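for the recovery benchmark. tokens below, seq after
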């Protein structure tokens, strides 16, 4: 069985010592070097995406991202665009002193119709980023950013598909958020989570979602929510706060205590390493059959018996308020 060296694990974890120790004891797949290369490739790709989208410190905000496609465990991933991880997508943008970030999770069920779910989520996030860069938005209304992006997306040539969406705006030390579906965000302050967004679902594992159907298709049987259904929040921020914005690949697999334990060590100099660490932990737990995941616990509340993690695409954005 192939064993990883500390140097190799350091490359994966961004030199995060706690994660290097964890990976050295748990990430020893049977795929040998091929599997190691897949993990390193994803880490490098996430760094590359971050360097493209990363917002330099401006008015005390730093931001970065990381992610892994679900199918990474079967071999090297194919990330075709920055900020796109499998069927997930994200963006980080700014206009003057206002910082905006978002995540979207494409609905995988469209694959059975021969449709790539990532096309919808990635284009939705690109439209959001373009709106922010142009300054055509009200910082206190991130729901309108989603709404305008969705309107732009609906113009020909339009993609077919569905996606959740979560957008946060940091403006004058206040965070404004709009969340549609089961992606979401949390705010960490001085050792604890002070705020977490509410998940929106119609029933178990059926989140609210934006949808564009084929012109000849009727709405029956499809979930078609509008941006106006987004849950809106406003939270005052303080220096040292950390905002984690992520798709359900994180929330379904990583307990809040694990996230807070990692964030205890975050500072302005290690936000990329911290982001990588959380994403890697989520990926490992998603493929752990013995893990008592938040998803499995939630399923039990609905009378559904399941165990282990939930394999899924994982995308997160980390904002550090310094």
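predicted aa per position
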């Amino acid at each position: 069985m192939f064993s990883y060296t500390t140097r190799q694990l350091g490359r994966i974890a961004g030199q995060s010592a706690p994660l290097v120790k964890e990976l050295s004891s748990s990430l020893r797949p049977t795929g040998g070097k091929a599997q190691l290369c897949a993990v390193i490739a994803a880490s490098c790709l996430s760094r590359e995406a971050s360097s493209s989208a990363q917002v330099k410190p401006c008015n005390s905000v730093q931001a970065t991202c990381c992610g892994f496609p679900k199918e990474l465990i079967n071999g090297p991933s194919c990330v075709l665009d920055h900020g796109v991880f499998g069927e997930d997508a994200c963006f980080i943008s700014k206009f003057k002193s206002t910082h905006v970030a978002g995540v979207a999770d494409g609905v995988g069920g469209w694959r059975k119709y021969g449709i790539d779910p990532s096309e919808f989520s990635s284009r939705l996030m690109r439209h959001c980023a373009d709106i922010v860069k142009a300054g055509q938005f009200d910082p206190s209304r991130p729901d309108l950013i989603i709404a305008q992006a969705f309107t732009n997306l609906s113009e020909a040539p339009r993609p077919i598909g569905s996606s959740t969406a979560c957008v946060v705006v940091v403006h004058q030390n206040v965070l404004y958020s709009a969340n549609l579906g089961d992606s979401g965000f949390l705010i960490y302050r001085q050792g604890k989570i002070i705020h977490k967004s509410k998940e929106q679902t119609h029933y178990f594992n059926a989140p609210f979602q934006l949808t564009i159907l084929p012109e000849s298709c009727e709405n029956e049987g499809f979930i078609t929510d509008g941006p106006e259904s987004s849950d809106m929040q406003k939270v005052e921020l303080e220096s040292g706060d950390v905002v984690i914005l992520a798709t359900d690949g994180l929330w379904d697999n990583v307990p809040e205590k694990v996230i807070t334990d990692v964030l205890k060590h975050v500072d302005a100099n290690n936000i990329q390493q911290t982001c990588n660490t959380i994403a890697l932990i989520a990926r490992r737990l998603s493929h752990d059959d013995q893990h008592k995941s938040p998803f499995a616990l939630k399923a039990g509340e609905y009378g559904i018996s399941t165990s282990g993690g939930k394999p899924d695409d994982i995308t997160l954005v980390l904002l550090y308020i310094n």
